[in-house]
Amino acid sequence: MVKIYWTKINDVIEESPETKTYILDCPEGFTWEEGAHTHLALEGFNAGDKPNRSLIRHMSICTLPDEKTIGITTRVREQCSEFKTRLDALGIGGEVALFKTHSNVPLKREDKSVYLLSSGVGLATFRPLVLDYLNNSDNVKKIHSLNVDSSKNYLFPDLFVPESENGLTSEFIDNRNGYYTRVKELAEDKDGLFYVVGSDEFLSENISVLRSQGIETEQIMLDKHEKTRQELLI
Predict the structure, then answer these.
(1) Confidence of residue 211 (pLDDT cuts 50, 70, 90)
(2) DSSP for 113-145?
(3) pTM above 0.90, yes or no
(4) Of 81, 191, 195, 220, most Cβ neighbours within 10 A?
(5) What is the pLDDT of residues 9-35, one digit of tens each?
(6) Which pLDDT does position 79 carry in this prediction?
(7) Residue of 118, 112, 111 whose CA lies nearest to 146
């Protein structure tokens, strides 16, 4: 039996004109680790014989457990899906359900450099990994984040800064060509670990570029269950 946690929206943060973070109360017994995703569902999703998948979305959690709240960052455009329209209409105090929470991309501590490759709002998946590293940098040489986002409304600018004194660096690029040029340059580190978050097309393109530069499949981390990960890495 799948455990379903019902909780309430505690706050809504407008990160940019089209991106919001929903801050949820942490239900008793709900646990997760950095890089986790969860199934976020709206009222009525389990009212029938089968779950109503139009009322369920797979979302990354952008907070760490020690922050005591669950953060979900997502695009909410003027023209968006029925799910996001209904989610946004709930507002503070609205109820949502969480279930099937799991992390495919925890921070590996193998005395290697870590490269975080993402597109747009996919950067939210990496926020807790970066916070975990800043809390404890043991056995991680450094972290570098590379994000492609043509909107120029970059996420978490206070955290993802060009240079810092703690081994964390980041950069934003507004076009795919420039982005993949940088991926190739980062892949000159043949011992690095490369985390990739984005659409399946984005994942496939990054995998192709990394492999062309001699990066092995075991060095590529994807926010996918193992079966799907293997299919993408074939």
Answers:
(1) very high
(2) EEEEEEEGGGHHHHHHHHHHHHH--TTEEEEEE
(3) yes
(4) 195
(5) 999 999 988 899 999 999 999 999 999
(6) 78
(7) 118
CATH code for the structural domain at 5-103: 2.40.30.10
- CATH number for the domain running over 112-233: 3.40.50.80
Q: Provide DSSP, 23-61.
A: EEE--TT----TTEEEEEEETTTTSSSS--GGGEEEEE-
Give span(s): CATH 2.40.30.10, the chain: 5-103
Listed residue (198, 192, 193, 145) closest to 172, CA to CA: 145
Q: How far, in Å, CA of 123 to CA of 143, rounded? A: 13
Which amino acid, one-letter code, is at 185?
A: E
Q: What is the pLDDT of residue 102?
A: 92
Cα–Cα distance for residue pair 216/203, rounded to 1 Å:
15
